[in-house]
Write a structure and sequence with these properties.
Length: 99
């Protein structure tokens, strides 16, 4: 799946699809760097707050090439974002924030 470098389980993929749906509403792609805690674990979905980059769709291919080859350059620093969940497994909300 675009935006993830590692092999992940189905429950996390379900969660990450919600993150990408929120990014898509902003005409962007979320590229995962790491988890930040605040675990969500249920029978159907697993996730946590995530840190990564929210990249506009028109720049996603360029960013992805850097991201896949190692650490992205400082050029992308202002696009570092957090995907923060709230609610519960049955009523999950994802908000993407930049601080």
């Amino acid at each position: 799946m675009r935006g993830i470098k590692t092999q992940e389980g189905e429950k996390f993929i379900e969660f990450f699809m919600l993150v990408q749906a929120e990014a898509n509403r902003r005409h962007s792609v979320f590229f995962l760097e790491c988890g930040e805690g605040h675990d969500l674990i249920s029978d159907t979905i697993e996730g946590e707050d995530l840190r990564g980059w929210l990249i506009p769709e028109e720049q996603a291919d360029k960013f992805e090439a850097e991201w896949l080859s190692g650490e992205p350059s400082q050029e992308w620093e202002n696009l570092i974002s957090w995907a923060i969940w709230s609610g519960n497994a049955m009523n999950l909300q994802i908000e993407i924030k930049q601080f």
